[in-house]
């Protein structure tokens, strides 16, 4: 399989590395077929998009017609054989993007999959990346149900169909989890060896790998952000604080919740109690933590699961900070914004 090149940071392209277990998971879906939609969730920047793009290449090589859309990044792949359909699809994509109606990109992928089933009756893959933030909670659930209908009630018989949706947005995941329309599978940040392979592709002088590992926790986007910031941790942390409006968030907290948040900086599992669940939900909404983490059995994860507990990286048994940098951003905001 050809390994694709991907942007790690502005002006820096790297080869796709690691995620061998996740790619084997895709091959397993090809072999076994899909009964439900596969919804993959995980921290922002953990590498879901890179894996999906490499999966699209894998599926293309396995003879699939592939439709990939990422509404947030306005990125589209149309790797299918019917030229007329491809031309029409790309025309509609340009129209939707020009109108800034980005939520329609996800529905265009769905519509095109139906047309491909009717035209080819072959092997079709629909890959939708980071659409839930644009679609919203209710429409995201409707969309997953529509993809399930594509599997169960297609317009024509087909050889195989794969439907994969990825998100870092936690609220929609809960809504979808209320129904039996999808398999919800987590993906975590890269394991140590995988991040090292990315780190070694970065040119120039840089901190030692162990230091980078402890700062990023294996999150490739944070690795790229550090490179862009010339390895200045303060710049990356301040960007998280400003982008997520953490000063405003912290200033709204009553005294007990400030104390709980400070405890969670040291041990995120302290949030996993009845009285602290509302605070945990707000942290999920801000994409600062992942909650209700399943057991570390490999079959439940798309790729290698995180350690059972690693407080140095901010990982608890049930709750984890999306990266050590996210945790540090909250810590500094609590120190700066006094009650």
Question: Which structural category do the helix and sheet elements fall into?
Answer: alpha/beta
Give the strand content: 5-15%
CATH third-level topology of the largest domain: Rossmann fold
Please provide the ordered H/E string of secondary-structure elements. Answer: EEHEHEEHHEHHEHEHHHHHHHEEH
How many separate domains? 2
Tally of DSSP β-strands: 10
Terminal Cα span: 56 Å
- Helix content, binned percent: 40-55%
Write the layout of secondary structure elements.
Blueprint: E1 5-9, E2 12-15, H1 20-32, E3 37-41, H2 48-61, E4 65-70, E5 75-79, H3 83-98, H4 103-120, E6 123-129, H5 132-135, H6 137-152, E7 160-167, H7 170-177, E8 182-186, H8 192-199, H9 209-216, H10 220-228, H11 233-243, H12 246-251, H13 255-266, H14 277-285, E9 289-290, E10 320-321, H15 324-336
Parallel strand pairs: 3-7, 3-8, 4-6, 6-7
Antiparallel strand pairs: 1-2, 4-5, 9-10
Helix pairs in contact: 1-2, 3-4, 4-6, 6-7, 11-15, 13-15
What does this entry look like structurally?
By secondary structure, this protein is an alpha/beta fold. The chain has two domains: 5-186, Rossmann fold (3-Layer(aba) Sandwich); 232-336, no CATH class. It contains 15 helices and ten strands. It has helices at residues 20-32, 48-61, 83-98, 103-120, 132-135, 137-152, 170-177, 192-199, 209-216, 220-228, 233-243, 246-251, 255-266, 277-285, 324-336; strands at 5-9, 12-15, 37-41, 65-70, 75-79, 123-129, 160-167, 182-186, 289-290, 320-321. Strand 1 (5-9) and strand 2 (12-15) form a beta hairpin. Helix 1 (20-32) packs across helix 2 (48-61) and helix 13 packs antiparallel against helix 15. The N and C termini lie far apart (56 Å).
